[in-house]
Every structure is written in C-alpha cells, then in structure tokens.
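#lab-general

N.A. 3:47 PM
ok so I finally got the sequence cleaned up, no stray characters, all 291 residues accounted for. can someone with queue access submit it? mine expired

B.Y. 3:52 PM
send it over

N.A. 3:53 PM
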Amino acid sequence: MNNVPVRIIPRLDIKGPNLVKGIHLEGLRVLGKPEAAARYYYEQGADELIYIDVVASLYGRNSLNDIIQRTSQEIFVPLTVGGGLRTLEDIRAVLKAGADKVSLNTAAINDPELITAASREFGSSTILISIEAIRKEGGRYEAYTDNGREKTGVDAIEWAQRVTALGAGEIMVTSIDQEGTGKGFDLALMQRIADQVSIPVIACGGAGRVAHLQDVVSNGCADAVSIASTLHYDFIKQPQAREDFSGEGNIEYLKKGGFQFSKVQCTSLPCIKQELVQRGINCRYTEDSPA
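B.Y. 4:20 PM
back already:
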C-alpha cells in the first residue's frame, strides 16, 4: 500500500429534502437534514463528502442544487454529487451549484461516451463512476443502475476496466449484497476491481465497525472508504438532527431518538480515524480532532 492517506468519506443518500438510509439500497428511512449532517461530518474531519439523490434516476432529474448551494457555503472539503445526471449540462449545473466532482452510473452505462466527453470538458479528476454490483453464480458480479433497481447484464469488473480507459478519474464500488448490513465489505469484489484499474477506488457498502475499514484497505486494496450507517446513527443522536419531520415519511427512528442495530457500531469520524491509525492505517488524523 502506498503512503497516500486513506480518505474517509461520509456518504449521504438523499430523497427529497431528507437524509435517508436503507438496507441493500431499499427500505429508506428518514434520518435528518443532509445539510446538518454534512456540517457535522465536516467539523469532525471528513476528508470528502458524497451526496447521492437516490430517486433521481427513477424520476429523471437531480434535485439537489439548492442543497448543494447551502452545503458548499459551510463546508470546505471536496463534495461529490450523483443521481440523475445524464448530460454535460446536468454536470455543469451541479458543479456551478458548488459540487467539486460528479458521480455517474446509469447515464454512463447507457452512454459510455459521456464519460470521455465529461472528462474532456471538466477534467478526469471531476468524474467519478459509481459501480453498484450484485454477486452472481460462479463468482461473477453484475453492474446495476437506478440505485440498485435495474439489471444491466454488464460485468462489473469489465465495466471498471472500460470506464478507466474512457477517462474516469475515480471509481466508487458499492456491493448491494453488503450495503446497509454492517457485515463488512465484499473484499473479493473490491480486490478484483482494484487489481484491474489504475485509478483510485472507493469502497462502499457494508461497513459496520472499524475493523471492516481496515480489512477493505489492507486486503481489498481500497484507496478510500465511503461510509454511512456507522456515522449516521451517531449523527441522529445530536441536537441538530432533531427537527420537526412530521409528514416526511418513515421517521420512526427519529421519533425514538435513534435505534440499536447489532451489526453496526455507532461511532464518530474522529474515533474511526484514531482507531485506524492505531491499527496502522495511514489517514488524516490529529489528536486535537473533535471527539
């Protein structure tokens, strides 16, 4: 492993105005406002943030521009935005709103040349390709679109190689099988993709405790780790998460003031980074980070 610090990136899935979370990308539950969570994670030392509009591809639009504008005025780490981005104009709009990078999945599979065009127009470092994969018989992995709802028939490993050749600057790999379960990452998937590409790979889907992050960096060869549940269930205990969400959907967890999920270790970014450093993982951490 090289000496570049491993990035720890909170992932914020967004539906309408709300931060949500599910299991296997389904059963979404309202957890708070994304701007409040983003500010909290930024203050705790997040290296980057990822915003994903989880229903954008379903409805054919990304509606995060207002949220992006509010967030970018208060946080000063790279912000990646995905969901429903189909054209160069869509990408330009979210970058103008304050995003630093964009995440493409559905549009990239439907039109691979969009990757090349976007990389040329905005720079390859701006273009992240999201690969959502499900394990199939024989050890094969199939790429899915529309937040894990639609089969593509595309081999996820081959797709990772192709997007690299087309000009992508980074890949985020989400195991749908593991996502939201807290059981750990799909190390075989991560390692196979990392071995086949020359660009940074972000692991996503399955983190339940710090040991899982260590595993995916040491054994899965990830350059960065994107996490949600283990951070969000700490965030919803904070005062800034407790707003009036009446009429906002499934808010049972907020009404109860949080919940217990035995597979997920509820913790904070400083605690995660401190433990990773103790485990020998190089990441950006200082002793005076907020607890």
